[in-house]
Design goal:
With 130 residues, this protein is mainly alpha-helical. The chain is globular and about 40 Å long.
């Protein structure tokens, strides 16, 4: 379940950050409501897309949707980094100028954090069991 949630939620976040990059989503509801430069918004959107794709990849590897044992050790090293990044991001969101970010994205980040914690402490599992 944790793997599927990560893949689903992070995929939706990729769509959201793509919309943010394209200017479809208001900028003031992301990144603590503090970005005002168009260049910094584009850079942070791309960083967010990349991070979410890494999370999707790690979850897909742990769930054996992607079967490449040569990358298992990289995934095992990435997951604790992703976990602590999500913990920090969840805490930072509590101090956002954007109420939308606090109310909507903080709970999403907490769910992602718990899912990564579960996944990083799980031996790779068969995708049928996830």
């Amino acid at each position: 379940l944790a793997g599927r949630l990560l893949i689903g939620i992070c995929s939706l976040l990729v769509v959201f950050h793509t919309a943010n990059f394209l200017g479809i989503v208001p900028v003031n509801i992301t990144w603590l409501g503090q970005l005002d430069s168009n260049v910094s918004i584009k850079i942070m959107s791309l960083v967010s897309i990349a991070i979410n794709l890494v999370i999707v990849f790690c979850a897909a590897m742990k769930c054996k949707y992607i079967k490449n044992t040569s990358l298992d050790s990289i995934v095992e090293k990435l997951l604790p980094i992703v976990f602590w990044w999500l913990v920090g991001n969840s805490i930072a969101n509590l101090f956002s100028k954007s109420n939308f970010e606090v109310v909507v994205f903080t709970p999403i980040l907490i769910i992602l954090t718990v899912c990564v914690f579960v996944l990083k402490n799980t031996v790779s599992i068969d995708s049928k069991a996830v």
